[in-house]
Amino acid sequence: MANDFKNITRAQIGTAPITIYTAPGPTVIIGFSLANVLGMSVEIGVDIYDASVPGNRSLLSPQTPLPVGSTMIITDQQKIVLEVGDSIIVSATVDLAVDAVLSVLEL
Question: Which pLDDT value is given to residue 1?
Fold first, then answer.
């Protein structure tokens, strides 16, 4: 099986939590950024859903402020490993507020 690098993008994330990625197999998150696209500060929340433990959602970034025009790098030097069915879920405190770029290596 080949290793596949992928970029996943989502625009205008808002108050409804949205699953931006679900791992089809062993996967490593190698980059993850969120950008505030509004003219006001917002807060963002990022959860990881662990499919091996039903109902287990871990806060990766709990309601973190994201100032006007800024970008937050969720992962930089740290890599995050996902297993089959694990998901990344993002929300914001204001509708249409955040754009996301997630870079992964599917193993």
Answer: 60
